[in-house]
Design brief:
Thiol Ester Dehydrase, Chain A; 5 helices
Protein backbone atom coordinates (compact mmCIF):
# COMPACT_ATOMS: atom_id res chain seq x y z
CA UNK A 1 0.00 0.00 0.00
CA UNK A 2 1.44 3.37 -1.00
CA UNK A 3 1.92 6.08 1.64
CA UNK A 4 -0.84 8.64 1.94
CA UNK A 5 0.05 11.90 0.24
CA UNK A 6 1.31 14.51 2.65
CA UNK A 7 -1.56 16.96 2.84
CA UNK A 8 -1.60 20.47 4.17
CA UNK A 9 -3.65 20.20 7.36
CA UNK A 10 -3.17 23.82 8.36
CA UNK A 11 -6.15 26.08 8.78
CA UNK A 12 -4.92 28.01 5.75
CA UNK A 13 -5.54 25.01 3.47
CA UNK A 14 -9.32 25.29 3.98
CA UNK A 15 -11.42 27.49 1.70
CA UNK A 16 -12.03 30.84 3.42
CA UNK A 17 -15.81 30.40 3.43
CA UNK A 18 -15.60 26.93 4.97
CA UNK A 19 -13.08 28.15 7.53
CA UNK A 20 -15.42 31.01 8.45
CA UNK A 21 -18.35 28.57 8.64
CA UNK A 22 -16.40 26.33 11.03
CA UNK A 23 -15.45 29.32 13.18
CA UNK A 24 -19.07 30.49 13.30
CA UNK A 25 -20.22 27.00 14.31
CA UNK A 26 -17.67 26.87 17.10
CA UNK A 27 -19.01 30.17 18.41
CA UNK A 28 -22.58 28.84 18.10
CA UNK A 29 -21.61 25.71 20.07
CA UNK A 30 -20.22 27.94 22.81
CA UNK A 31 -23.36 30.11 22.90
CA UNK A 32 -25.73 27.13 22.95
CA UNK A 33 -23.68 25.39 25.66
CA UNK A 34 -23.92 28.37 27.99
CA UNK A 35 -27.29 29.94 27.13
CA UNK A 36 -30.07 30.96 29.48
CA UNK A 37 -32.25 32.21 26.62
CA UNK A 38 -36.02 32.30 27.19
CA UNK A 39 -38.11 29.77 25.28
CA UNK A 40 -39.16 32.12 22.47
CA UNK A 41 -35.55 33.09 21.77
CA UNK A 42 -34.46 29.43 21.84
CA UNK A 43 -37.27 28.53 19.40
CA UNK A 44 -36.27 31.33 17.01
CA UNK A 45 -32.61 30.29 17.17
CA UNK A 46 -33.52 26.64 16.56
CA UNK A 47 -35.49 27.64 13.46
CA UNK A 48 -32.52 29.64 12.15
CA UNK A 49 -30.22 26.65 12.66
CA UNK A 50 -32.68 24.36 10.89
CA UNK A 51 -32.72 26.75 7.91
CA UNK A 52 -28.92 26.76 7.80
CA UNK A 53 -28.85 22.94 7.91
CA UNK A 54 -31.28 22.78 5.00
CA UNK A 55 -29.11 25.26 3.05
CA UNK A 56 -26.04 23.03 3.47
CA UNK A 57 -27.78 19.70 2.84
CA UNK A 58 -27.24 19.62 -0.97
CA UNK A 59 -23.48 19.95 -0.44
CA UNK A 60 -23.01 17.13 2.05
CA UNK A 61 -20.50 14.41 1.24
CA UNK A 62 -22.43 11.16 1.42
CA UNK A 63 -19.73 8.72 0.32
CA UNK A 64 -16.96 9.95 2.58
CA UNK A 65 -14.81 6.86 2.15
CA UNK A 66 -14.76 7.16 -1.63
CA UNK A 67 -14.38 10.93 -1.84
CA UNK A 68 -11.14 11.45 0.07
CA UNK A 69 -13.14 13.46 2.61
CA UNK A 70 -11.67 13.05 6.10
CA UNK A 71 -10.60 14.94 9.17
CA UNK A 72 -7.00 14.47 8.02
CA UNK A 73 -7.51 15.98 4.59
CA UNK A 74 -9.73 18.75 5.99
CA UNK A 75 -7.51 19.81 8.84
CA UNK A 76 -9.62 21.32 11.63
CA UNK A 77 -11.40 23.99 9.61
CA UNK A 78 -14.88 22.49 9.61
CA UNK A 79 -14.38 19.76 12.22
CA UNK A 80 -15.86 21.59 15.18
CA UNK A 81 -15.96 19.07 18.03
CA UNK A 82 -12.30 19.83 18.67
CA UNK A 83 -10.90 23.34 18.86
CA UNK A 84 -8.51 24.27 16.04
CA UNK A 85 -4.82 23.47 16.48
CA UNK A 86 -2.63 26.51 15.87
CA UNK A 87 1.11 26.84 15.20
CA UNK A 88 1.29 23.19 14.16
CA UNK A 89 4.67 21.60 13.55
CA UNK A 90 4.32 18.13 12.06
CA UNK A 91 6.79 15.66 10.62
CA UNK A 92 7.07 11.88 10.49
CA UNK A 93 8.30 11.66 14.09
CA UNK A 94 6.52 14.37 16.05
CA UNK A 95 3.55 16.74 16.32
CA UNK A 96 3.39 20.02 18.20
CA UNK A 97 0.57 22.53 18.35
CA UNK A 98 -1.39 24.94 20.51
CA UNK A 99 -5.07 24.50 21.34
CA UNK A 100 -7.64 26.36 23.44
CA UNK A 101 -10.77 24.68 24.79
CA UNK A 102 -13.87 26.89 25.18
CA UNK A 103 -17.30 26.83 26.82
CA UNK A 104 -18.49 24.03 24.53
CA UNK A 105 -15.96 21.74 26.24
CA UNK A 106 -16.94 22.61 29.82
CA UNK A 107 -16.95 19.78 32.34
CA UNK A 108 -17.19 19.83 36.12
CA UNK A 109 -15.79 22.66 38.26
CA UNK A 110 -14.87 24.85 35.30
CA UNK A 111 -12.41 22.39 33.77
CA UNK A 112 -12.30 20.83 30.30
CA UNK A 113 -14.67 17.85 30.09
CA UNK A 114 -12.85 14.55 30.48
CA UNK A 115 -14.30 13.25 27.22
CA UNK A 116 -12.97 16.17 25.16
CA UNK A 117 -9.34 15.43 26.00
CA UNK A 118 -9.15 11.91 24.47
CA UNK A 119 -10.86 13.24 21.33
CA UNK A 120 -8.24 15.98 21.06
CA UNK A 121 -5.45 13.44 21.57
CA UNK A 122 -6.95 11.18 18.90
CA UNK A 123 -6.86 13.99 16.35
CA UNK A 124 -3.26 14.98 17.13
CA UNK A 125 -2.05 11.37 17.21
CA UNK A 126 -3.99 10.51 14.07
CA UNK A 127 -2.34 13.32 12.16
CA UNK A 128 1.07 12.10 13.27
CA UNK A 129 0.40 8.39 12.76
CA UNK A 130 -0.81 8.99 9.20
CA UNK A 131 1.70 11.63 8.13
CA UNK A 132 3.61 10.37 5.09
CA UNK A 133 2.55 6.78 5.75
CA UNK A 134 -0.16 4.34 4.66
CA UNK A 135 -3.44 5.10 6.40
CA UNK A 136 -4.06 3.67 9.85
CA UNK A 137 -6.77 3.72 12.50
CA UNK A 138 -6.81 3.94 16.27
CA UNK A 139 -6.59 0.50 17.90
CA UNK A 140 -6.46 1.84 21.45
CA UNK A 141 -6.02 5.17 23.18
CA UNK A 142 -5.27 5.24 26.92
CA UNK A 143 -5.44 8.62 28.66
CA UNK A 144 -4.07 9.48 32.10
CA UNK A 145 -5.44 12.68 33.64
CA UNK A 146 -2.66 14.27 35.71
CA UNK A 147 -4.03 17.72 36.59
CA UNK A 148 -7.00 19.92 35.74
CA UNK A 149 -7.05 21.04 32.10
CA UNK A 150 -8.33 24.63 32.11
CA UNK A 151 -10.65 26.35 29.65
CA UNK A 152 -9.89 29.50 27.66
CA UNK A 153 -6.10 29.32 27.88
CA UNK A 154 -3.47 28.25 25.37
CA UNK A 155 -2.38 24.67 25.91
CA UNK A 156 0.63 23.00 24.33
CA UNK A 157 0.04 19.59 22.76
CA UNK A 158 2.94 17.37 21.76
CA UNK A 159 3.06 13.88 20.33
CA UNK A 160 5.78 11.53 19.19
CA UNK A 161 6.21 8.15 17.57
CA UNK A 162 7.57 5.70 20.15
CA UNK A 163 8.09 2.74 17.82
CA UNK A 164 6.78 1.10 14.68
CA UNK A 165 6.50 -2.67 14.42
CA UNK A 166 5.15 -3.84 11.10
CA UNK A 167 1.60 -2.49 10.84
CA UNK A 168 1.63 -1.28 14.47
CA UNK A 169 2.44 2.34 15.34
CA UNK A 170 2.90 3.15 19.02
CA UNK A 171 2.61 6.81 20.01
CA UNK A 172 2.65 9.06 23.06
CA UNK A 173 1.07 12.49 23.50
CA UNK A 174 0.87 15.09 26.26
CA UNK A 175 -0.92 18.35 26.94
CA UNK A 176 0.65 21.05 29.10
CA UNK A 177 -0.63 24.25 30.66
CA UNK A 178 2.64 26.10 30.97
CA UNK A 179 4.90 23.73 32.89
CA UNK A 180 1.99 21.68 34.24
CA UNK A 181 1.26 18.32 32.62
CA UNK A 182 -2.52 18.06 32.56
CA UNK A 183 -2.95 14.78 30.65
CA UNK A 184 -1.02 12.26 28.59
CA UNK A 185 -1.92 9.43 26.28
CA UNK A 186 -0.45 6.21 24.96
CA UNK A 187 -1.91 4.87 21.74
CA UNK A 188 -1.63 2.13 19.18
CA UNK A 189 -2.56 2.87 15.59
CA UNK A 190 -2.87 -0.01 13.18
CA UNK A 191 -2.10 0.27 9.46
CA UNK A 192 -5.01 -0.92 7.38
CA UNK A 193 -4.70 -4.04 5.27
CA UNK A 194 -5.07 -3.67 1.53
CA UNK A 195 -8.70 -2.97 0.69
CA UNK A 196 -9.76 -2.42 4.31
CA UNK A 197 -11.96 0.53 5.22
Amino acid sequence: MAPMPEVDTSEGSIQPGVRRLGSALRELQNRVSSTSAPNEVAEAAALAIEIISATLEPYRYLAARDSGWSDISRGSGSRTLNPIFHDVELNTQSFMGTIKFSAFHLGGNGAVHGGAIPMMFDEALGRLANFGRPICRTAYLNVDFRNVTPLDVDLQVSARIEKIEGRKRYLHAAVHHGEILTAEAHALFLELKEGAA
